Structure formats: C-alpha cells, structure tokens
Amino acid sequence: MVGNAEGCEGGRIVDAGAEQSDAIPYCPDVDGDGIADPPPTHGQIVAALCPTAPAPILATSPPDEGYTGLETWFWSTGTHQVTETGTVGGYAVSCQLEAVEFAVDTGDVHADEFGHPRHYTSTSPGHDGADTDITHLYERVDTYTQSLTITWSRRTQMGADRTTSSTTRDYPVLEIRAVATTGP
C-alpha cells in the first residue's frame, strides 16, 4: 500500500497540511473534487519518480589493452543501488533500483575456435582480482568491442519490473613475443 492509503475508498480526505497518523488513512484529494484520489500505479510512480538506471562502467585488468594468452578480468564499478523518494498524486512513494545481473560480451569473435565462451553473466559486480566472477582468455590479436549490460530490479510500493543499462568500449589485444638473442 502506498503511504497510508489503506481504507481510502470512501475514506476521509485529510488536508495535506494536517498532521497525519497511521490510524487515520491519508486520502489525498489533489484535484480538489471532494473525492479521495486513488493511489498511483507502479507505472505512474516509475514515470514520475524513478531515476534512470545508471550507466554501467566496465573495468578490466589489464585496463587499457589485453594480451594474448593472459586472462582479462572483468568487473563493474560505480553505483549498483539507487533509491528515490517523493510524492506522486499526493502519496508518499519510493522507487528503488538494484543491479541484479551483470552480462559481459567480450566481443571475442574467435572464442568458439578456442573453446571459450564469448558471453558471461553473474549476479555479482565482480572486483579487481583473479577470483573475480568473469575472466576471459583472448587468443588472437584484434580490437574487440566489449559490452556490459546491467539488469536492474525496479521496485515501488505498487509493483516491480526490470530495466537495463549498457555500455560498450573497444579493447585492443596485443601479443608479446619473446626474442632469443645470443650473447657476445
């Protein structure tokens, strides 16, 4: 239930400036027609209050370029939970976004040749470390278009749904070769 709207059907209209109590349903009459207005729907709360899902930030190690034969670690930095509160149609409401899935496309068009997956998903944003949830081994020199798509759970008092945000970037992968030389 939104705010203290239980019992608003046929309920008492309370002046927005009046002191509220949980015992008295607050039934706003925003349009002033003398009839209590219904609580907003999930869609109305989303449209009026919910923030846009934050743009993901894809981090890797190595950070700017990868190397063949060396694992690249992937993780998401930045905000993974956002809450907004406010008033919609005279009712106190809130909207919470929470990141629930992280999907990485390594851009590695050669992955199948080497028995590696190209796409990875995790319920964790990961971190900078060899034990992060998503790692990938590039086997060919190329410039790959990587992407990170975050699926967000969007909840209000009147319902829930999901939304996504994503980002892409180019990631060059180089090869390091050892060169044998003979001494003097």
Structure characterization notes:
With 184 residues, this protein is mainly β. The protein folds into two domains: 1-39, no CATH class; 51-174, Immunoglobulin-like (Sandwich), CATH 2.60.40. The chain is built from one helix and nine strands, in the order αβββββββββ. Strands 2, 4, 5, 6, 8 and 9 form a six-stranded mixed beta sheet that branches. The protein starts with 41 loop residues before the first helix and ends in a 10-residue tail after the last strand. Residues 10-18 and 20-24 have low confidence and may be disordered.
Return the domain count.
Answer: 2
- Uncertain residue segments: 10-18, 20-24
Secondary-structure content class: mainly beta
By CATH, the topology of the largest domain is Immunoglobulin-like
Mean pLDDT level: 87
What best-fitting shape do the alpha-carbon axes yield?
Answer: rod-shaped
CATH class of the largest domain: Mainly Beta
Query: What Rg is obtained from the alpha carbons, in whole angstroms?
Result: 26 Å
Second CATH tier, the architecture of the largest domain:
Sandwich
Amount of beta strand: 35-45%
Number of strands: 9
Query: Helix and strand string, N-terminal first?
Result: HEEEEEEEEE
Give the helix tally.
Answer: 1
- Biggest sheet, open or closed, and with what strands and sense? 6 strands, mixed
Helical content class: under 10%
What gap, in angstroms, lies between the N and C termini? 84 Å
